[in-house]
Specification:
Layout: H1 2-14, H2 19-28, H3 31-37, H4 44-53, H5 63-82
Helix pairs in contact: 3-5, 4-5
Length: 86
């Protein structure tokens, strides 16, 4: 559990997330999945791209299903903005 909190804290610091942004992530997304797909040491541009789309949602359904879909959509939109198509 300590390792997970450390990863979360590092992500929050590296992406300079406000409390409101942290709550948005907690309510809409799977933070562990975001951490896996986004850069560990983002550039300023990458942070701005991430914050620009933070809050994106897709569809509805059970909470876990919806969070997973929201997370996927957030990651895909971020990759598109950043020009990562691999």
């Amino acid at each position: 559990m300590h390792d997970i909190n450390t990863k979360h804290d590092i992500f929050i610091k590296n992406y300079a997330l406000t409390e409101l942004e942290q709550k948005t992530i907690e309510n809409l997304y799977e933070l562990n999945e975001i951490i896996l797909f986004l850069p560990k040491n983002p550039t300023t541009s990458q942070v701005q791209s991430f914050k620009k789309i933070l809050g994106v949602q897709i569809g509805s359904g059970y909470l876990d299903y919806q969070k997973s879909n929201n997370t996927f959509e957030l990651i895909m939109q971020w990759r598109e903005i950043e020009g990562i198509f691999e």
